[in-house]
């Protein structure tokens, strides 16, 4: 992957707004402001350059539904060939790479096995997530929206996932060889260790990322067999954010779930399931000592963004910093592999 660089004038209004959103998302700013900018991008996508210029001159930009004061100023400046002031200040605040460490691993990353769109609880359409991944120099990404049980996250029913797969295929067809969008899911692990989607549908996916979102405080003697059963399921490829811990952020803190990590990671090793290094700063999951345990057992890993917005795709740099510091060899990280190898591994 490549570090995105700061743009220069002239810049189109849409590029300026997209870059601002990217930086704000990556910097974990409030979604309220970002959503407003994203709405303004949608609003001007349908407006011709000529009309936009006329409206800037006439001062009537804000008559377009979805354009507020800040967006109007950004659009006005970029139409006049000036680098928008809001972009400059956002660049100053959030333009630096998220971390200095892990640069070699970051450069070696090719893909992502955990990312969401607005089909479940993400903020952006699939197409926008793909475009951002392409701009970061990624080669592939699995779309992993939530499964039905997770109603709070607008989890996809059987019908909606079937519908989504058609969209994924259409997007893929339009991308040619330049980028591959893999058919994926973040499937919830039930209390009995079964997966929250029908087997025949899981069989149609390229990759299955499995995770726990309920009863995180179960005692270890219940949590361990639950996780081992999920890992032994031949359809599971990735065990995501395995401890469920939250270390910072607006949702507060949550201690890691209790389970026999050696048993769970041994099951991962035996079943060719990768242990996810979840890059989200509030998750930072698994903690260092568990990554070291999985490393010493010989497990495969993924470095995933768990992005819910395009700018968050770049959070993988945080996972890279951790993996490099903890001495995980790049070849054991599935998200550094070419997409054909990932497909073969997932179906193997
Ligand atoms: Zn999750
Ligand atoms: Zn997720």
Automatic annotation (TrEMBL):
It comes from the Bacteria. InterPro entries: DNA_pol_lamdba_lyase_dom_sf (IPR027421), PHP_dom (IPR004013), PHP_phosphatase (IPR050243), Pol/His_phosphatase_N (IPR003141), Pol/histidinol_Pase-like (IPR016195), PolX_PHP (IPR047967). CDD domains: PHP_PolX. Residues 111-191 form the Polymerase/histidinol phosphatase N-terminal domain. PANTHER family: PHOSPHATASE YCDX-RELATED. This is PHP domain-containing protein. It comes from Terrabacter aeriphilus.
């Amino acid at each position: 992957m490549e570090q995105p660089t700061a743009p220069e004038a002239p810049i189109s209004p849409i590029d300026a707004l997209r870059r601002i959103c990217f930086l704000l998302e990556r910097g974990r700013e409030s979604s309220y402001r970002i959503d407003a900018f994203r709405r303004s991008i949608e609003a001007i996508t349908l407006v011709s350059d000529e009309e936009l210029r006329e409206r800037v001159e006439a001062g009537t930009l804000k008559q377009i539904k979805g354009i507020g004061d800040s967006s109007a100023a950004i659009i006005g400046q970029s139409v006049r060939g000036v680098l928008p002031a809001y972009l400059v200040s956002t660049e100053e605040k959030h333009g630096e790479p998220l971390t200095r460490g892990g640069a070699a691993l970051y450069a070696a990353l090719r893909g992502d096995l955990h990312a969401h769109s607005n089909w479940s609880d993400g903020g952006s359409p699939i197409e926008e997530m793909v475009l951002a991944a392409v701009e970061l120099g990624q080669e592939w990404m699995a779309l992993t929206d939530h499964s039905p049980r997770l109603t709070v996250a607008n989890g996809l029913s059987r019908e909606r996932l079937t519908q989504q797969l058609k969209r994924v295929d259409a997007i893929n067809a339009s991308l040619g060889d330049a980028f591959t969008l893999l058919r994926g899911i973040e499937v919830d692990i039930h209390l009995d260790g079964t997966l929250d989607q029908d087997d025949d549908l899981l069989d149609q996916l390229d990759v299955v990322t499995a995770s726990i979102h309920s009863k995180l405080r179960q005692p270890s003697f219940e949590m361990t067999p639950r996780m081992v059963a999920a890992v032994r399921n031949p359809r599971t490829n990735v065990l995501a954010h395995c401890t469920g811990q939250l270390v910072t952020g607006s949702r507060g803190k949550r201690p890691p779930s209790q389970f026999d990590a050696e048993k769970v990671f041994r099951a991962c090793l035996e079943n060719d399931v990768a242990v996810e290094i979840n890059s989200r700063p509030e998750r930072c999951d698994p903690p260092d000592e568990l990554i070291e345990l999985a490393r010493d057992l010989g497990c495969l890993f993924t470095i995933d963004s768990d992005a819910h917005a395009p700018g968050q795709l770049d959070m993988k740099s945080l996972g890279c910093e951790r993996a490099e510091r903890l001495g995980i060899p790049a070849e054991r990280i599935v998200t550094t592999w070419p997409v054909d190898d990932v497909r073969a591994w997932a179906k193997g």
